[in-house]
Here is the input.
Amino acid sequence: MKVLYLAHRMPYPPNKGDKLRALRQIKRLSRNHGVTVACFVDDPDDMRYMNDLVQHCTKVVAIPLRRHLATARGLVGLACGSTMTESFYRSRTMRTAISKLCTETKFDIVVAFSSSMARYALNVPANRRVLDLCDLDSAKWSEYAGFTHGPKRWLYQTEAKLLGAKERAWLQAFDASILISSAEAAELDDQSRTKLHYITNGVEMPVRGLRDPQDDNGSCARPPTIGFVGVMDYFPNIDAVCWFAQSVWPTVRKALPEASFRIVGRAPTSRVRKLAQIPGVVVTGEVANVSDELVNLDISVAPLRIARGLQNKVLEAMAGGLAVVLTSKAAEGIDAVHGREFLVADQAEAFADAVIDLAGMPTRRAEIAATGRRFVAKSHRWSDALDAFELVVTGASRPTTRCTKELVPTESMPIQPPTEPLRTRR
Here is the structure.
């Protein structure tokens, strides 16, 4: 069959969760179908990877997206009653390109990746239309509104309301829609779930854990290293490391005076860089190989207080043989068990205690790491996720009618508004 795949950003290089998911989907579909890709390019540097993407496709059309103009367009659209998301990605050039592709090829299927591309897909004259929302962006905007005040709070609340209505309409208009986990569907009514499927992300498992849990035996002889990995100009990540460094780390450092906390990730903001002034905190910025950083960690933390969908960074740490301490928000969408595959804590004191306990008990840390790695190897295989995806795309899979269990937080977490404006990443 001939498939038109629409993406809101060029899925190469796969250095973000959404790009990784999109690239994996394209590569799978290309095994059995002819795949044409039309995508926006929000980072000009990505264009140098065009040949890497083209080798998996019949054709690729990449449309540059000027973020400043798109942001202004989004705000104007919101003020006029449209969603900011649709207005941000409204492009005559993209519309013309898709129309030309449809004139050249009669597509059997169109796949839209994320809410940003839904409206384009509905105008494609294909026999089947599939929408991979991953997560509900409307819920994300609603969550952001809880962390802001004044005009931005109104903006995020308005976008959440308008986009939420659009998402429900799209769930009915498409032949099939996909969310990354049942937790994302919690706010949907039964009618909105009638064509819904849940497909998780996979993880590329190292042949041997980047960090072999057996190496932790007797490792108390050296100071423990705790780490966080993520893009550091993304507000949820900024808030996470700041909360950990300012509210959790002092307790950890008091118990473990020689311990270090490494913040690994490109584009750290000034707020993140200032954390390096705290004793024991290291801000690396972009690194050549994240795996080289992970292998030197003893514990991975995901202290996210804002999170949607599935946290790839958590799965990758678990796959790499690291014990993970995370918040209940970061654990959503991961059907693992607190106390067995990872440790969940929301309040600063409880989070610090979990880190300190793992640092002081190498055998326990090795057990958590080993069971976590086995869980990821069993439950988050790319082959399983992509098999399910291809079945949905071709229409051979029935919608998911049941929801998997949701993780119950171990304790409530007081949320404090951030002290700086939100910087969102689409």
Summary: The longest helix spans residues 150-173. Residues 2-174 form a domain with the Rossmann fold fold (CATH 3.40.50). The two ends are 31 Å apart (CA to CA).
